[in-house]
Structure formats: structure tokens, C-alpha cells
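[agent] plan:
  1. take the single chain provided in the ticket
  2. run structure prediction with default settings
  3. attach C-alpha cells to the ticket
  4. add a short note for the reviewer (M.T.)
[agent] executing step 1
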Amino acid sequence: MPASPNVTVVVVNYRRSDDTITCLRALRDEVDYPADALRLVGVDNASGDGSAERIAAAVPFAELIRAPANIGFAGGCNLGARRAAPGGIVGFLNSDARPHPNWIAAAVDALQRHPGAAAVASKVLDWDGERIDFAGGGVSWFGMGYSPYRGQPDGPRFDEPRDVLFGTGAAMFVRADVFAELGGFDERFFMFFEDVDLGWRLNLCGHRVRYEPTSIAYHRHHASVAGVGEFRERYLLERNALMTLYKNVEDTAVHRVLAAALALSARRGTALGGLDAAAFEMTGSGRHDHGGDDEPAMTVPKSAIAGMLAVDRFVELLPSLTRSRAAAQATRVRSDASLRPLFHDLDEPLLDLPAYLAAHRVLADAFGVTGPLADRHRVLIVTGDALSDRMAGPAIRAWNIARMLAAEQDVRLVSTNSCRFAEPPPFPVLAVRPRDLREHVDWAEVVILQGWALEQMPWLKADPDTVVVCDLYDPMHFEVLAQHRDLDPATRRDAVAATVRTLSDQLERGDFFLCASERQRHLWLGHLAALGRFTPALYDADPSSRSLLAVVPFGLPDRQPWRTGPGPRRLIEGIGDGDKLVLWAGGVYSWLDPLTLVHAVDALRERHDDVRLLFLGMRHPNPDIPEMGMAHDLRALADRLGLTDKHVFFNETWVPYEARQNWLLDADCGVTTHFEHVETTFAFRTRVLDYLWAGLPIVSTDGDSFAEVVRAERLGVVVPASDPEALAAALERVLYDGPFAAECRARIATVRGRFAWPAVLAPLIEFCRDPRPAADRLPSALHAARPRPTIAQRLRADAELARSYFADGGLGEVARRATGRIARLAREHREHREHREHRR
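[agent] step 2 finished; step 3 output follows
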């Protein structure tokens, strides 16, 4: 077993030695972490009341550092963090906090599971463990950090790990090397918002701060700063908010945001002090009355001038802050728009006074600082699949793309089929006729399309301005080969050819492409190369081609499944609590092989009468997709073997997307079986993701990309195609070998995070932050790559074509080809002219 990482925990004391002693003792006696890997450091911040001596005598196991002066929480933490071992982890715990036994171990585990995370934000509860003190933070547009959930009862909604902007200094961890590289906490802050500033800096330079709900601490909120005083606290909050803002907001927004923040700081002072600036604008009859020595004296509360003093101090610090800002911005790899989901509610006013709220709204509107801190783009997602509470794969993918992008961009999700939801979606979702798509495309800067959508927008092929993203996660031409096997040869050939043309049109027009696996990436790279897309301009811009074609698999929810209603053990007669349930999650299509699976279940029931197989959805939610021949053959086989409604069950209607977890949670394993053919080679079985989500051991036929994952990660059993005996043995192992099934579930828990929607969609999210045409579609590249032919060159080319047509079919063929070419050129010219006029 690998050694536990070295962890140094720093506790800063200032005249609260009893709390500090209690905290350090709890870290030694109550926390479950190897003692030889744990270093405890107490920092006495020049308390001057004998605290240092009391701490040294009471907790000799902790290293005590005596600061020569009160350097604040930020300085004290930095002083202690210097004792951390290189390559280790440094933790910070307030002296008025106490750790849960798992506080350290859970944070260390999170850092080991997420190499890209540099810090862990602990869940912090009140002293009784009943209400939230911190479960992820937010920051206002004027720079003040806050805990949006403080005071709310603890519950399941706070039990999901996620990325956050910052962790509270009351209880958090940082990789020691990263902490040192960034200079630790900014000691100019003294206290308040130094944790916000550190987290923002970590995120903008590409690190992640991970909220880990199982790393728990308990806190008496504000007890450690009780002696600061209300006036000084207000001064520090005002000053530090301005410093946080100025250091970290990106260049495109800093001036307008800072101007509004300075004005709002003044209004906070007058609002808190109960002052009315309009009272100073006294006028006489037709002239200004400047008053005199007989003006009544005015008492100005200290709270009213805290903001003024904060601004004055901010100005004094501006030269050094400007250097800090330059250093932070030089390391920036993420835009503030990309960090927008981590900011929580930027428009949170944080003060409930009428005069202040009015100014907050006026300033936000006047300076344009509401919403994101950088420009949003207009993104249109187009699918031909039905959008509803019951969705198939293409609709589910389009929905989640829209859901993820809506946090940063202005999104519309459009179906050319149908749209029916019981509850209003959180972003615009609508169904349109194909001929009405132009209005939405004209609105958009970026169009993300899938399937046959581009064929419904032929004018988009010639549009040079709109950035087009083509989602090629579904190699449709291979599916059509299998799906249309029952058609006559000519019709089948035409269907395949039409599908290939559709895909070629997308590959010729697109600016960015998505595929579901590295296997698919090789497929589409070959297709792009065959179409001539790999020009010198494209190659020179990115020899790796990752900026053109990215792997974006199908995803799974970024939260654990939870039961919201009954599953098949309650809804389907014949499936009981004690039965072993095998789930086929998804539709029954001609390129899949459910027949071998039924034969395997038929063999397995001879040894285990409690085995049950359930097909989750027989009738596709898209009315344009009829039941395929394989579904008919499946029912017939189950009937013939006497398995229907005894060992094999069919759920006729598609399970609602938001209720599918109830069916998954009832299952004991998930299965996917297919034939050995070309579709399998490049397929990405989306149903397997639901198995991962629900923690189900997986039985899979070999040959597709997910079978490689199942085998390599030991998530279940992989079997040869069309082998019912091997399949029966695999099912028997995952269903009846308890230790093996438990091991599979444990491995799944470590793997599924990499397939969560936020993770898999990262390349698309990043592209939409700065959408741009592909390098070979830029005007300069087009001019260089496709020089305009001379008249003589065009005449020679036309003559060659005419000779070829004459050889094939005489003068009649030449005339037919010429007529068709003239009509096509006229149509394309007319459509291009109409489109340009419409956009104007």
C-alpha cells in the first residue's frame, strides 16, 4: 500500500489559546490519519497575553511558531505553511473549528483522485453539525466573497463534489508546492477574502479547487475575529473586496467593474451610516446656497467612512497591487467567462438597505457589470430528435450540451421534430419546422448540429460568417448499412450513399468536430483527409488537429443517482426483490444482438431460476423511428423459448429521462451485446454510461471501444460475439459471485467521474468561449489554398469535362450535364444572394 502523503495542518492563534489548544488536540486525537505523515503547526500571532506559553505547555506535540508581530490570518497561515514538506499538502483550520475524523483523509483522497485539483474546499458545518457554514462560495461583481448556503440545513444537496471558486480559510487544503508557487495568501489582506483571492488565482491559472463534502469541519462562525471590532471589520471587507477585484478580473472588464465598485463602496458607507447625500444639495431662490459658519453640525457615524478609508488605502497600495495584477494575469489560462459558473451569483447585493439596493441596480446597469465578466456568445443547438421527458440518445446529448453551455453562453436548443416538457426548461427550447431554422441561425454566432440537420439548412453550407460545430458521435453510415438490410439492393445503396454525402457535407463545412472515442477520431481524420481538409493552413495552425476534431464522448450526470419513485421490482409483475435482474438499457436496433442474450438467459435459468432480463424501452420516443425487425425477432424468440414474462420482460414505453435511475437502481448488472461488424468497431454504446452511473457491473460483447474500457478497468466481463455459453457464464459471474461484483462496483466508482458531462464536454465548452472559423476557412487561407482560375484554365477544364461526357453518352449526355450544371449554379447563386440580403 502506498505511503500516505505528508500533511501539515496550520492553526493560527490570537488571544484564544484555549480554542487553539482544543483544536490541536482534536487534530492529534480524533482525526483518522497516520501520525507519521501528519505535522501540526500552531502559529501565535503576537498575542502578548501569555497564549504562546500556554499553547507550548499544553500541546508539546505541535510545533509552535511565535510571530514577531500580529501579521493577521493571511500572514500567520503563510508562516506556518513554510514548514510543509515539499510535495506535501498544507491544511488550514481555524482555531475556533474542530475537525471530523475523516477531515484530512477525505481531502487527501480527493486530491489523489483529481490530479488537476490543487486545493480542496471542505464542507464546514456549524458547531452542532446541523447547518451549513460553507459548502462552496460565491463572489459579487464588486469583489466581496460570500457563502451562499450559510444557515441552510445540511442535506443531500450539499453532498455532491464539484469544482468551486475558493475554499474557506476556516477549513481547506492546498498542495504545498502550488501554494508556495503562488506566494500563498496575500498578506496585504490581513484577514477576510484572502481565501477568495487565492482561489480565484488558482482557477485563473488553470488549477482546480474541489469541494469535497466528506471532508468536514465544524465552526463557530466569526468567533476567531470577535475582537476585531465592527468598524475595522467593515474597513477590511471594503478594502479587500477592491483588492480582490482589481487583482483578478481580466483586462476586458477591470476598468468598468472597478469604477462601479468604487462608486458602490461610497453608497454602502452612506447607506450604513444613514446619510442622505441629496441633503447637501440645498438651493436658495434662483442661486446656490453654499451655507456658512452657521450650518448645523453633522454627526457622521464611523461606519459611513469605513468605505472612504478603504478606498484611500486601496489607492496607496495601487502600485504594488498593479504588479500583483500583472503577475496574476500573466499566468491566466482561463477566462472569467469560463469561470462564470464558479462565481455563483455575481449580482448578489449582500446588503439589504433600500438606498443601497437602488444604487446597486443603477451602477450594475450603467456599467454593464451584471451577468458574466466577459462577453457571452449566442449558441444554437439543432437536433432532429424529439425533445421531451422521454428522450433517446441524440436528444439527451443535445440537451446536456445546451445545459452545460447555458452556464456561460446564451443558448437556444431547437428540434425539427417535437418538443414537449412537463416543466419549463431552464433555457429556451423549442420545436421548429426546417424551413423556419434560418431565423434562429441568423441569431446565432455558433451552430452546433448533429445527424441530418445540415441537409435541412443547405444555405448554411455557403454561409461564411457562422461558426459551425458538427457532432459526429454517431457514425450514421454504418448504422444504415445494418438498419436497411431488409430493403432492396438499389434502395439500400441509395440510403447509404445519401448518408455518406450528408456526413461529407458536414466534414467539408464544419469549423469544429466532435467524436465519441479515439477510434472514431481515426475514422473522421481519414474522412477529412480524403476530402482535402488538411491544407497547409490547417496543418500549420495545429499539427495535432485537436483544435479541429476533439474527442467528446457521451456523458453521464455529474451527480449520483437517487431514487425518486418505484422501479421494475414494484412496477412489473414477475420481477421480485429476491430476483437477479439483468438490464438492457436502451432500444433494440438491428445492429445489436439481443438474440444471443436471450439464448444465454435460457441456458442460465436452468441453474438459476431467479434470473430476470428486462429490456428497458421497446418503443422509441421519436415517432419517426419505427420498430425495427430485430425487435420483432426478439419477441418471437422469447415467446418460442417460453421466457416472456417469466425470465424475459419487455417495457413497452420509453422510461422518462429523469426517472430512469429508478429502473437502474433496481438492477444487478447491465448488459450490451452486438455483432462483430464495422458498426461495432466505431460504436459508442451510450447505455453503458447509465450502467456506470448506477454502479452496475457490465457484461459486454467484445469489439467496441467500451469493451476495451470494461476489460482494462475491470468493470465486468467481456465476451466474444454470438457466444451464448460465454455470455451465460459472464452473467452468472457478475450476478452470483458477490466478491467479484463488489470489486466491479468499486472500480466503477473510480472510473465514472471521467465520463461526467462537465468533464467530457470540456473541449466544446472551451471552444465556445472563443469560437472561430477553422484555419482553412479563414479568408486568407481560402485565397491561398484556392486561387481563382484564369479564363483559359476554366475553358480547358470545361472542354475536358465535355469530352468525358461525350465519350460516356454522346451529345445527349453533354446537353443533360450542361443543363444540370447551369441550373445548379443558378440555384446556388440565388440562395447565396438571398442569404446575404436576409442577414443585412
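[agent] step 4 note for reviewer: DSSP finds 30 helices and 27 strands in the chain.
[agent] ticket updated
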